[in-house]
Predict the 3D structure of the following.
Amino acid sequence: MGPRRKVMFPLFGDGIFTQEGDAWKHSRELLRPQFVHKQHEDLELFQEVVDDLISVLPTKEVEFTSACEDVHRFADQIIDRNLSRKLESSDQGKYVILDFLEENTSSRKELRSQIINILVAGRDTTACLLSWTLFLLVRHPKVLAKLREEISSKIKGSTKITRSVLQSMTYLQNVLKE
């Protein structure tokens, strides 16, 4: 693995990005089911924690250790919010990734490490998808125009975009898959 574990462990902890061998295989098997598309229906679930993260992002250069602690606190907030949701809610039968990970990890530290690894993996995947999509749309103005037309017709002046609205945009789905 080289220096990757030494450099990345303070941020990621013991997760898929800092493991090898059987430990890596275990993390991969643990996380693989979490990336099934239908698992992520409620986009509003992330709004408050994303807003919290943005509010704590530093505006000046900070030390790596301090930044890692901020990320750990952010992940802990997600975990705490999930645990309190379980106590207050009757979401029986609703799939929540944190519930699955909590049941299948041996400690809070391991749970936090897996959550951080998932967040980073999702960010990288989304960033690549959006970057390439925008790159190609600029080079194909007819596709961009058709996409704009579909989005305008589906949203119709509303600022609220829901998963069902996104799913109804078949041309958008095809552009993203392409």
The chain is about 70% helix and 0% strand.
